[in-house]
Amino acid sequence: MRTIKTIALLPFCLFGATPAGAADAKGARPAIFQKLVDCRAQQDAALRLACYDAQVAALDDAETKKELVVVDKAQVKQARKSLFGFSLPKISLFEGGDTDQDEEDLKVLDTTVSGARQMNDGNWRIQLADGVYWRQMEAKDIFPPKAGDKINIRRASMGSYLASINGRSAFRIKREN
């Protein structure tokens, strides 16, 4: 029964592998996954089932040993959201699927403030609901942020970010952690 569930879930998963099982070319499937897909070519039903059983066992073993990582689109989206504000190189693990929609999702972060503190320079250090800290980067008077306020952070020009709290005027902000 577990074999059938695993095979049924495969089309809904994205596969990323560590170097031991990584594909050589960009966009190529990991070898262990390709072997499973190749089982479809078996004409004989018994041989095809034996192939599937062997390859699913190999996939399960690789996942258990952390040689293969199985994530779904929602997990990739959550990881990309948690990295919002960092300048990172392109990582192929986060590519694929509906990239136009994914890129749009990464331009804006809507969340809430969980805490804020005014620093010695008069600028604010703001903690978001997910525990991430952002710091005001320009000397601009803003309404003191407080827990529960809605905050919108969006990409601006030249790698900077603008934040708006409760729809008020935007100010430059930078991620700290």
Provide an overview of this structure.
With 177 residues, the chain is an alpha+beta fold. The chain has two domains: 2-73, no CATH class; 107-175. Helices cover 30% and strands 26% of the residues. It contains five helices and eight strands, in the order αβααβααββββββ. The chain has helices spanning 2-9, 31-38, 45-64, 73-82, 99-105; strands at 13-17, 68-72, 108-118, 124-128, 133-136, 150-155, 161-165, 171-175. The strands form two sheets. A six-stranded antiparallel beta barrel has the order 3-4-5-8-7-6. A two-stranded antiparallel sheet has the order 1-2. A hairpin with a 4-residue loop joins β4 (124-128) and β5 (133-136). α2 (31-38) packs antiparallel against α3 (45-64). It is rod-shaped, with a radius of gyration of 23 Å. Residues 1-25 and 99-105 have low confidence and may be disordered.
Task: Please state the structural category.
Answer: alpha+beta
How is the biggest beta sheet arranged?
6 strands, antiparallel, barrel
* Large-scale geometry: rod-shaped
Number of helices: 5
**Order of strands, widest sheet:** 3-4-5-8-7-6
Q: Which stretches of 5+ consecutive residues score pLDDT under 50? A: 1-25, 99-105
| pLDDT averaged over residues | 77
Roughly how many Å is the radius of gyration?
23 Å
- The portion of residues forming beta strands comes to 25-35%
What gap, in angstroms, lies between the N and C termini? Answer: 44 Å
Extended strand count: 8
Topology pattern, helix = H, strand = E: HEHHEHHEEEEEE
| Estimated helix fraction | 25-40%
**Number of discrete domains:** 2
